[in-house]
Amino acid sequence: MIENRPYMKILTHVxxxxxxxxxxxxxxxxxxxxxxxxxALSRSPIPLWFGDxxxxxxxxxxxxxxxxxxxxxxxxxxxxxxxxxxxxxxGKIAVSIIAAYAIVYFRFPFRMGFFWLIxxxxxxxxxxxxxxxxxxxxxxxxxxxxxxxxxxxxxxxxATFLFRQFFMTVPDELVxxxxxxxxxxxxxxxxxxxxLSRTNIxxxxxxxxxxxxxxxxxxLIVTTDEAYYTIVMGIQRMTNSGEALPVWHYIMGTAxxxxxxxxxxxxxxxxxxxxxxxxQEK
Length: 282
Description:
Elements: H1 6-33, H2 54-63, H3 74-105, H4 111-120, H5 130-139, H6 146-150, H7 157-167, H8 172-180, H9 185-196, H10 198-213, H11 217-222, H12 231-239, H13 248-268, H14 270-278
Helix pairs in contact: 1-13, 3-7, 3-10, 4-7, 10-14, 12-13
């Protein structure tokens, strides 16, 4: 039985409001700082309300970039991050769902051995295999390319494992019904399994898109051409401006712009994301 105590409701709301405040305050400060000039942020007290240079700052970031960081336009870096994140996300989901389909619905020698080989790679993060992966990319002449940015990060044991677990919950009666209707493996996969996996795909899409968008180490290693710099690399270059003082109004503006695509993806797929995490439609 759940007790309905008024003071518990008040306490719960106070804790939630404090949590929202601590989470949103850094975002608020980034928004405010991006609308001021460099002098306003170098003296005390730091402004807590919007300034009058927001339009100029964002126009400079999107069109001309920051001279202290090489002058690479932020819009170009965001486009590179978007291409890399979408390539990684779509590639991971496509490879994982096909691998899980083969493991669950086809009988071939060493089937479970292949699954456990895929599963073991969960223990090998990118940082552990980064040197041999870089050597392969160099030999394939894929440095400074979108293929070099995305292909090494496409394989995903986690997504394969999640799809396998979901496919194993699909009733055998559904498979038999598809056979009676003379649905072949490809038709069963496209017309039945993919629609059933809609919420799982949405949940994985959000998680994998944010994973690809926030990548820093791998793009830093495989790109030397400024035309392929990502937005996370751009923020790091702005903060390490050598002997010059960091241009915090531009750094905060770039951070705000970098938050827009992930937030848009989360808001657009929020309902499917929650369904994919809390239930399994069949």
